Description:
The protein is of the alpha/beta class and 217 residues long. It has a single domain, classed as Rossmann fold (3-Layer(aba) Sandwich), CATH 3.40.50. 40% of the residues lie in helices and 23% in strands. The chain has eight helices and seven strands; from the N terminus they run αααβαβαββαβααββ. A seven-stranded mixed beta sheet has the order 3-2-1-4-5-7-6, sandwiched between helices. α3 crosses α4. It is globular, with a radius of gyration of 16 Å. It binds S-adenosylmethionine.
Amino acid sequence: MSSLAQRAMQNPVLAAVYERAWRPVLGFSLMGFDPAHVRQEKQRTVEALGLAPGDRVLDVACGPGLFTRVFAEAVVPGGLAVGVDLSAPMLAQGARRGSDGGDGVPAYVRGSAHALPFADGAFDAVGCYAALYLIPDPFRALAEITRVLRPGGRLALMASIESPHRPVRAAQHLTLPRTGLRMFGADELTGWLREAGYRDVVRERHGVAQYVAATRG
Ligand SMILES: C[S@@+](CC[C@H](N)C(=O)[O-])C[C@H]1O[C@@H](n2cnc3c(N)ncnc32)[C@H](O)[C@@H]1O
């Protein structure tokens, strides 16, 4: 059965207000109420992924494509930005703003992060923002991301990270799983990436969000 969080993402009303209202409010609170960071988030992701003209970039769990569109502009001319998501209402929102995969315009595909519908090594860069904490098996998703990322390609993630304070951490682990949300342990994601052969693994923490970037070995 899908979780409350998963079901919410399939809701057309939420999809319609996601980019203008839900994400800014959620982002602001998740990222420790830091307006400067929220403003810079997309540009910093482009930098973390090292996007350049001609690159092929995948946005996993893209929602309505708020990052996918920025990626598409960053790989002009000659590049390709693809957004993949499970939610048809989210993708429909993205498609309203253009989805032909032309120069500067993303392409969208419906699919699961658990079984990405792309060939091995198909992408130069993969981003996955604000999603791993609600994907039922995030490590299977990471294995799939790794499969479709070419060796030497760049990965950028934004996910949750548990509080360093023990009582807050205990409350997080008690309450959040009931909604389908997961708090990652301090080194859970970075440790997985190192084990999987990634190099240059870096992490930045903002509130209860972590930004992780790495290069596939
Ligand atoms: C909170 S939104 C994040 C959207 C966007 N990446 C952002 O940064 O705002 C989470 C997205 O993950 C998608 N999602 C959840 N589980 C998924 C899965 N197994 N495969 C692909 N997408 C999934 C949801 O449909 C939703 O669009």
